[in-house]
Model the fold of this input.
Amino acid sequence: MNFNTCRITTPYWLILIVITLFSVSCHRAGVHNETKPVSISFKPVANIPFIEVHRCLKNGLSFDNNGFQTEPGYKITFLTNDSASVYSPDKKAFINFYVFMEQDSIFNVARSYFKMKHMNKDSLILQVLQVEGDTLHTLNSLVYMTFYSKDYLKAHKLDPAVLGKPTRADTAFIQKKSTIANKTPDSAFSARQPVQLESRSPLLRVVHNEVQPDMLNNFDPSDEYMNPEFNISISKAYQDFSYSFAIFVDDKGKMYFDRSMDYVMPEFRESNTRILKGIINGYLTAYLKVTPGSTLGIKHTSYIIVNVVGKKG
Done:
């Protein structure tokens, strides 16, 4: 008998099934078992008041490319493992919040998510997590907060206000960006001390839209300088009109049209742009005193949004 011709061969697909089942059973049995992340405990720092002394991006700078400044100002005391006292600049008082624990040293307090990067009785380092829907983007969360305990600051005679000031590297970064923006308006970025508009005619009234820190914006009023907005009303205009548009303001205070904030049909965009440029070069230039925006004392091109209403009567 020819044993080669009578040998029973196992089908290849059956071998794959056996291997797959074996792998799954091994994983469930713990052969490939990984350590499961556990939530953090605040018991080692319970009832210790911490004050934020520095806030920066991953690269160590306090400013991003858009001009947003990461400023310290947070105060927190973990009371127990599930509650904390957080200072409210709006109420000028401490408010107690529940602490919701997650895995991998992530927790939620005062409507924000954080990841604990370092913790001892003298200091904390927190990573501010970016939230989008039900997803926490740890890789895109680039803001870090450094805290010192109140006792540590006192013992070393450290002033949180001094520790939180921008660095020389921040100044160099803003100077470089300002030089570029002043040559190329499209490179404009938000000014930490935003553009100021002041009427110099009884025919024009200007109101700056202020943003107040509250619970809805996590006590963050940065939109006021990131997107400064003004309501402008003009009397005795050539006709009734209402437009919203963005303007570049250079380091000398000169205004340039950027874009319309209203939707305009493609066939009307060219004529609409001419009208808006006319409003800038006519009414706004004639009736406004403009103080350019600046960051760290450096004047630079930035932009503003204006809502302009003209009344013929």
Q: What stands out?
A: The longest strand covers residues 302-311.
